Amino acid sequence: MQALVMLLATGATYYLGLLAAAAAAVNPGRPNTPGSLPAHRRQKRDWIWNQMHIDEERNDSLPHYVGKIKSSVDPKKTEYQLRGESAGKVFRVDKNTGDVYALERLDREKISEYHLTALVVDKDSKKNLESPSSFTIKVHDVNDNWPVFTHRVFNASVPEMSGIGTSVIQVTAMDADDPTVADHASVVYQLTKGKENFDIRGSGLIVTMNKHLDRETQDKYEVVVKAEDAQGRRGESGTATVFITLQDVNDNFPIFTQNRYTFSVPEDIRVGSPLGSLFVEDPDEPQNRKTKYSFVQGEYRDTFTIDTDPSHNEGIIKPIKPLDYERIRQYSFTIEATDPTIDLRYLGSTSPKNIARVIINVTDVDEPPIFQQPFYHFQLQENQKKPLIGSVLAKDPDAAQRDIRYSIRRTSDKGQFFGITKKGGIYNDKELDREVYPWYNLTVEAKEVDLSGTPTGKESIVQVHIEVMDENDNAPEFAKPYEPKVCENAPQGKLVVQISATDKDITPRDVKFKFSLSTEDSNFTLIDNHDNTANIIVKYGYFDRERAKVHHLPVLISDNGRPSLTGTSTLHVTVCKCNEHGEFTLCEEAAAQVGISIQALVAIFLCILTFTVITLLIILRRRLRKQARAHGKSVPEIHEQLVTYDEEGGGEMDTTSYDVSVLNSARHGGAKPPRPALDARPSLYAQVQKPPRQAPGAHAPGEMAAMIGVKKDEADHDGGGPPYDTLHIYGYEGAESIAESLSSLGTDSSDSDIDYDFLNDWGPRFKMLAELYGSDPQEELVY
């Protein structure tokens, strides 16, 4: 009570402060008297208000009275007005009394409060008598709405076999009434369908009521939920449907589709290849099918394995080692199917194991021979021929037990060094050199044959590795090429070069090479260092380059093999001029002293060969040109619209070769020969016979000119001729010609029997013809 009084006193003080501040704002120049309220210019209203209330959905007749606006101003002079969005539409005020009315029934769920402004004005001047005052009209809620679900349909899921009380889904229904008014917005839920398996709690949470919900029996459930108002209006409610899907859990063991499986498989099946499948039924969904197949009591675990196909949940049987019809023809064993991932809490009376019998029959096939070893390794001493290096052996695994014949693939023994007997014995036909090939890898084939020796079955191969053993058959030699040099004024004891040796044979760790000079008659001496090296030093000093610029020094090198071998290697020591510091200034290479090098010989040979080829090509070209001229007239040259005749007139002496009736027809007024059609082109080659020679004096002077004129006039006035120019060559030369034709058309001197050297006697005018047709003595000499 004391706290309430203090709260009221605090509120009163707060409002007094607000009034004092308002008064100061109205009369800022007037001082306030301590302990008293400020004076106002206008007359003080006798009420304070800022809020009105009205119930929603009132059933009485409109308009509905809301409240009253009062003022201390003379009522006869005042007029009340409302301003705001809803003024005049939803609310109005009596301008004389200030009563506020609602013009329509209000719905709080649409608009819960309205904001208006009240005005007190003069009736006549319409001026404000009071400052505008804002106020609020709040709509009181009544319980006039029933709950509505947020969705008409809900979807939910829960694992099968879940315990009682497992949450499924939370459903919610909304009541549009004012939640601040007691029980106006409270909702009560209940199930109208699905009560036997599910329940709903006060907040709308749906839970399971049956712990034996089995997806394999029924996987979907439909539940109907009703929501009611907790107060008053229970006749009105909202409903929603919830579809609940059971999620699968691994609660079922696999069961074989049959109790006995029988398979037939050939004995040559590849290891790891599938030979058959075992099928089981598991009602769980694929992701929960984890079938494991195993052998009962370890039967044939070392022969077969069973892999699980995760996509089909089937067991695939595969052999893990080769099968042999001749050894075991049938396998029989028991298979067990289990699922190790099953939660045992979900199991009922179902047996956790399921078994089936599997029988595998092995069928016989014609198998290739089988070698007793996967590969063979033999050793052979080099430089020897042995009738038997080693033997290979293969057998027919089939019951027929056929004979085996052996052979060596030629691709593995291209040098044909080895042979093999019918029984598999390998021998060498040639001596082998370890330094050439230390190993030989042979491929031996084994084939089944019948009694006559004819191959009948399959073949198999095996690798045979022959190692050639070393013997001391190579003499030592220099480890590398040496090119020693020495100054001509080298002092006694000067080191020229240090040499070492190598051996193509296998060099043991304790190998010892001995060095010596084959002759002591030189200006060099050899000192053996006894570490497989030797030093060549100057014996006396000073060399004469004029006598010998290169000294050839044979060195004997011996090894300690059995037997010991000695080889000779030659050092070519070049004598050089040196400066005072002992540096070489002038040397002749040892190879230059021997003579012409191989490279020089090859270059000389290539030059000679090139010159010979060029000479032959020139001669061949000239011969071909001569042959072309000899046959030139047999290949006529083709030109468009050019008629070439291969015959010429022989003058007055030729009276039998040519038929000049065509020309003579013009002179004697004969009939004109027919012209070709307009669309016909003249023949490329026109064969014209030589006209017969006339007796001397048979033609009048100028007859050639007359003939040409006639032919020209004939061509000019012939309208049926072709519309293009054509060159005609006539073999008529006129009468009384004392010389034969000199035309070069169709003539070639290379194949003519006529000697044209007489043209040289005819004077300068025939000089060109003589050069063209006369023989060239130099050309005849070349050919």
TrEMBL record:
One of its GO terms (biological process) is protein localization to bicellular tight junction. GO terms for molecular function: beta-catenin binding; BMP receptor binding; cadherin binding; calcium ion binding; cell-cell adhesion mediator activity; fibrinogen binding; protein phosphatase binding; protein tyrosine kinase binding. InterPro entries: Cadherin, Cadherin-like_dom, Cadherin-like_sf, Cadherin_CS, Cadherin_Y-type_LIR, Catenin-bd_sf. It is a single-pass type I membrane protein. Its main location: other. It comes from the Eukaryota. CDD domains: Cadherin_repeat. GO terms for cellular component: adherens junction; bicellular tight junction; catenin complex; cytoplasm; external side of plasma membrane; nuclear membrane; nucleoplasm. Gene3D superfamilies: Cadherins, TCF3-CBD (Catenin binding domain). The keyword Repeat applies. It is found in: Cell junction, Adherens junction; Cell membrane; Cytoplasm. Keywords: Calcium, Cell adhesion, Cell junction, Cell membrane, Cleavage on pair of basic residues, Cytoplasm, Glycoprotein, Membrane, Metal-binding, Phosphoprotein, Repeat, Signal, Transmembrane, Transmembrane helix. Cadherins are calcium-dependent cell adhesion proteins. They preferentially interact with themselves in a homophilic manner in connecting cells; cadherins may thus contribute to the sorting of heterogeneous cell types. This cadherin may play a important role in endothelial cell biology through control of the cohesion and organization of the intercellular junctions. It associates with alpha-catenin forming a link to the cytoskeleton. Plays a role in coupling actin fibers to cell junctions in endothelial cells, via acting as a cell junctional complex anchor for AMOTL2 and MAGI1. Part of a complex composed of AMOTL2, MAGI1 and CDH5, within the complex AMOTL2 acts as a scaffold protein for the interaction of MAGI1 with CDH5. The complex is required for coupling actin fibers to cell junctions in endothelial cells. Within the complex AMOTL2 (via its N-terminus) interacts with CDH5. Interacts (via cadherin 5 domain) with PTPRB. Interacts with TRPC4. Interacts with KRIT1. Interacts with PARD3. Interacts with RTN4 (isoform B). This is Cadherin-5. It comes from Bos taurus (Bovine). The lineage of its organism: Eukaryota, Metazoa, Chordata, Craniata, Vertebrata.
